[in-house]
Amino acid sequence: MVSNSAVRVQGLWKRFGQQVAVAGIDLELPAGKFIGLVGPNGAGKTTTLSMVTGLLRPDQGTVEVVGHDVWRDPVAVKARIGVLPEGLRLFERLSGRELLSYSGRLRGLPGAEVDRRATQLLDVLDLSGAQHKLVVDYSTGMRKKIGLACALLHNPEVLFLDEPFEGVDPVSAQTIRGVLERYTASGATVVFSSHVMELVESLCDWVAVMAAGRIRAHGTLAEVRGQAPSLQRAFLELVGAQGREAGSDLDWLGGGTR
Amino acid sequence: MSTAANTAVNTTSPSAAGGSITPVVVRLKLSLLRGGLRRSGGRRAAYIASAVVALLFAVSQLLGMILLRGHAHIASVTVLGTAVLALGWAVMPLFFPSGDETLDPTRLVMLPLRPQPLVRALLAASLVGIGPLFTVLLLTGCVISVAHGAAAYAVAVLALLLALLVCVALARAVAAANTRLLTSRKGRDLAVLSGLVIAIGAQLVNFGMQRLGSSGLGRLDPVADVVRWVPPASAVGAVDSVSDGSYGVAVAQLALTAAALAALLTMWARTLTRLMTSPDASTLQPADTAARDRSRTGGLTRLLPSGRTGTVMERSLRYVWRDPKTKAAWVTSLAIGLIVPVFNALQGTGSLYFACFAAGMLGIQMYNQFGQDTSAFWMVALTISTPRDAYLELRGRALALLVVTLPYATLVTVVTTALLGDWPRLPEVLGLSFSLLGAMLATGAWTSARFPYSIPQEGHKNVAPGQAGLAWIAIAGGMVSAALLSSPVIALAIWANVSATGDTWSWLLLPAGAAYGAAITYAGLRLAAPRTAARLPEILTSVSKG
């Protein structure tokens, strides 16, 4: 149980028919860090996070979260993690407050405590005004925020967020960021996926780069960035997207004749 | 699709260039039709099948109308038929908002188009399709059946054209006026519930036809006298007037139809202009409506047990009311569960045993529980760690169902008994109902865990593509098993009916059926729970396809 890694993944594989989504991942994510899982679209980030959180069964491999096997000891793992998946619905015909209340009570928290935490979370995430609106009528940013509130409600040790900033306006993004920074400062771990390098660079202290179902690099931000001027450059080199100069054929674009 | 789109884009400003955009839009409509059909073979087959059925219906209608030429009340029938047709055109866009993409003017908002040419082009495009063809055939039947003489035939051509244009313009004007509603969430909810409205409407029409059949078509005449002045039925009325020699009346009726067409087109053009020049306000945040439903929430929570059971029940019951798909399924079950026994009893053909329909129909709602959650099931999956959690989850859902079903099934049984006056059999039938309900809950829980499938949230389908077989196994297999499971109680009921002393003991079937139903529900939930807990990722994958 005593371990300074929040997540330990060994030999993780997942195939969908002919296509290999995750091709043998070994990864150890340190506890108490703000961790970014970066990679282009289709790199296998969502598949990996789904398998790590127990929402998708791997073909092979083991996953341990804070020392407990996800598939053999779900009681210990599910109580300790918070998840914000991408591309899955919420119970959208509940209002924001009802959703929090439902989610908290389902996890066995006492009703009064759920209501207290829900009020605070709604307040901090700037959702108090919309708390009685149905989630189906929320904007993308509001959905991400209410999803984050659900994931935080039971005060998990490790938080998994799949593309938490995708489609979110700058104001909501800043709010989410503030909450996450406060949360990691208390010693908890955040693992989030993104393909926006500037964001990862400014938020994370530990990064894993994924491409085509494999981990290409991992370590502290400085280690992964290496000699490159920015994480964006380092990333493009790692996934082999260098030297493809965009737009040399589009000579008619801009200026001159229409 | 791409060729037409390119043409539309390349024609920078047709009105300025002197060309017309009408052919472009008509071609776009044809390309969209083709593109829609190319997407899948099943879609193509469904389209062709529905086209054939619609056209066969229209042709038979046409022939029927021609055969009815000279019937005493034919004028009333044609006039009212045209009015009903126009009504259909008016409500169609409300129920099938996504039916015609060229119809949604907000898609053309970036193109430099003026309202007048746009209205002309869209009107022309609207005349392409099965719907207009169907309408032309029906209208042809209507005008032929009332036209007598060369003058009447000449007017009939004009009347047909006017009536068709009024129908199409009416549909477009209604659709444009409601575009904001139809593209909003409430509009999509409405579309999901529309199937029910149509089913109920069909029942009413059926009822009306039966009344007419018994009392004769003459009853239509007073209504028809008014409707023959209402466009577009007034166009058909004009043909009839010409046949009668009342040329003045005919001119007035035709003028009225033309005026209605002009008014509809003007209205449509105005709405289009407004739609294309004002910003879409649907994503703006409305003013705070806090505390609107706070008291209601508190009330419901207080009545339910605490812990996971109450939480699950509360969510399930809220979804019955708020989720259009769940609501439609429930209303169907409630309606059929009531209609079959009660209507049969009213007509004197009923048996008290039909009252079990209520329990059976509502028991179906226990099937595919997790599919009803859609991919939101992940929230449930993350809180189930043990078979015990899964048991509580399933039991909560079963209890939520029972809160409605038990009183409803009892009520239906009592009402049916009262109608048939067969009070001695009440306990027996109630006992049968309860055991059947228990068997449905048990098999429903088990198939929910074993054969989950996705329910698409949009449209009228209740199974995601490719999962129809799975759904069929779950429902048909489950219902057969439910019947088998309740066979001990059925056997007891048969014995009570055939045995000489059975009548004295038949009341025992009530406690026996209730106890058996409860026991088998418990057993079903117990069996389903470990399966649910062990298959969480597989269930999530199966229910996330919609």
From TrEMBL, chain A:
Q: Where in this chain does the record put each ABC transporter domain?
A: 7-237
Query: What keywords does the record list, in alphabetical order?
Result: Antibiotic resistance, ATP-binding, Nucleotide-binding, Transport
Any one GO MF term held by the record is:
ATP hydrolysis activity
Origin, by domain of life?
Bacteria
Provide the topology term for how it sits in the membrane. Answer: Peripheral membrane protein
Biological processes annotated in GO = response to antibiotic
Query: Which compartments does it reside in?
Result: Cell membrane
InterPro entries documented for this protein: AAA+_ATPase (IPR003593), ABC_transporter-like_ATP-bd (IPR003439), ABC_transporter_ATP-binding (IPR050763), P-loop_NTPase (IPR027417)
The record's annotation in SMART domains points to:
AAA
According to the UniProt record, one GO cellular component term is: plasma membrane
Q: What is this protein called?
A: ABC transporter ATP-binding protein
- Native organism: Streptomyces spiralis
Q: What is the lineage of its organism?
A: Bacteria, Bacillati, Actinomycetota, Actinomycetes, Kitasatosporales
TrEMBL record, chain B:
Stretches that traverse the bilayer: 45-68, 74-96, 117-147, 153-178, 190-209, 247-269, 328-346, 352-370, 398-420, 432-449, 470-495, 507-525
Alphabetically list the UniProt keywords.
Membrane, Transmembrane, Transmembrane helix
Question: Superkingdom, according to UniProt?
Answer: Bacteria
Q: Does the keyword Manganese apply?
A: no
Per the record, which residues fall in region Disordered? 280-300
Q: Does the keyword Transmembrane helix apply?
A: yes
The identity of this protein, by name, is Transporter
